[in-house]
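Re: that chain you flagged

S.,

Sorry for the slow reply, it's been a week of failed gels. I finally had a moment to sit down with the sequence you sent. For the record, here it is as I used it:
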Amino acid sequence: MKQGILVVSFGTSYPDALKNSIENIENKIRDNFKEYEIVRAFTSHMILKKVKNRDGVHIFNVEEALEYMKNEKFEKVIVQPLHLIAGEEYNYVTKVVNAFRDKFKYIELGRPVFFYQGIEHLPQDYSIFIQSIKDILPREQGTVFLGHGTTHPSNASYGCLQYVLENQGYNNVFIGTIEGYPGFKEVLEKVRRRGLKEITLIPLLVVCGDHARNDMASDEEDSWKSMFEKEGIKANILLKGLGEIDKFADIYVDHIKDVIQGEILGEGETKKGDI
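Prediction finished late last night. Pasting the structure tokens below so you have them in one place:
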């Protein structure tokens, strides 16, 4: 039986970020599931177009990847997203997977890092994540993790992560978002309440791409680094995508194992057919 794992990320146009984060995770998955062929897809059509025009490299979108796997006679497919939250991108992947359910003998979708739609994974997913990054998570020095944020209800995942961090004693670690809540104003207020004069900014992002390099770390006046320093707070920078951290990458490996374990136990509600 031909088996494949489709690894789906938002994507990046930075070659070093692709190698250091996305490929690092893909290699972890490849090493753990040697009987599966690994296929890559991006969800960002803008990034796909940019990479195609700049480098002449074609990367599958999700529909193209599953069409390829169908044409190549894959019978069993596991789709593992590299998204952090179950937001709009994850919903898009879910819809595409559902559209292909009658094309494969078996197709199943893994969950993102914080699966807010599945209460059985709360708060374990958050504790597992914190454990995976504890080596870059100082308890004393102020740290601000900067995520993307969204208007989707799954933005609540950022607040849940903040709550679990505080419960575990990380009182000087703050979660902020670029396009959601909490934003800069809310995080600045938390930093001031703690009386901190110096913080470290770290991306809460799988890859170290535009958001990390520009919105967080650049010298532009509207970057988080510049805005903190304008408020008299020294902002150190750790430009490291989460995907570069091996223990974090292992989370996706474990989520694939959960899919396989659910299949073995007969608990998968969305699988099609028997293996």
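What I noticed first: The domain at 3-115+245-265 is CATH 3.40.50.1400 (Rossmann fold).

Talk soon,
D.
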